[in-house]
Every structure is written in C-alpha cells, then in structure tokens.
Amino acid sequence: xxxxxxxxxxxxxxxxxxxxxxxxxxxxxxxxxxxxxxxxxxxxxxxxxxxxxxxxxxxxxxxxxxxxxxxxxxxxxxxxxxxxxxxxxxxxxxxxxxxxxxxxxxxxxx
DNA sequence: GACCTGACGCCCC
DNA sequence: AGGGGCGCCAGGT
Length: 110
Fold this sequence. Notes:
Layout: H1 6-15, E1 23-24, H2 25-31, H3 37-47, E2 59-60, H4 76-84, E3 89-90, E4 93-94, H5 97-100, H6 106-109
Parallel strand pairs: 1-2
Antiparallel strand pairs: 3-4
Helix pairs in contact: 1-3, 2-3
The structure holds a DNA duplex.
C-alpha cells in the first residue's frame, strides 16, 4: 500500500522551517515541484491535529498574510504561535515578512 | 460519476 | 494600482 503522497514531503519541508521564520505555499510547492501551491494547502489541511509536529503556522501566502488562520482554533492561534516565536503580526500579516521569509533552498546552502 | 470548492499564485485587463 | 479569471490536484457532496 503506497501513500507516497507528496504530503510527507510537504510536512518534511515545513518541519525544516526555522523557529522565528516563515515560508510560503508557493516556495514550498516550487521547491518540491508540485506544480501548484494549493497542494501545499491541501496537505496542511490534512495535518489538522499534528500541528505540534508540523509548524503549519509558519506557512503563509506570498504576501505574508495569514491566509490559513481560519483553519486554526481559535483562528487567532496562528498569530499567537507566531508572536510566541518572536514574529510580529499586524492586521493578519507578518511584519517585515520580506526579511524573515525562509527559502527551502537554504537547506542546501547550509 | 459529475460538479464545486479550496490553507495559492500567475497572467491579463 | 486594483480586480477578475484560469490552472493546478485532491476531496467532499
């Protein structure tokens, strides 16, 4: 029985997002060559309760907006967790997003 | 089994 | 600069 779903690959990448940093659906999708940013969202949607293992709160859209906050409970939880990591969130958007956005490619550059 | 929607992103107007 | 439409794949109705 195979479940090679790219899901695991997505979770793996998300898990690699450093604390205090964020990444985007698009970058992850591009890094994994999924072809669609939505797939990342689908995968994270399946996470649901495994959020402890997969820091899905560190994944935002290309504008740094917390587009997935509505899937957290309460929705403000996403912002809460981010702020707990030192990330400033204002008006459902990551402040200084451009500076702290993390590129999966950095893994290879270590 | 067909249709619609969805944690997105890019192109076109 | 802002708004609207299409594409991507999976899952639910």
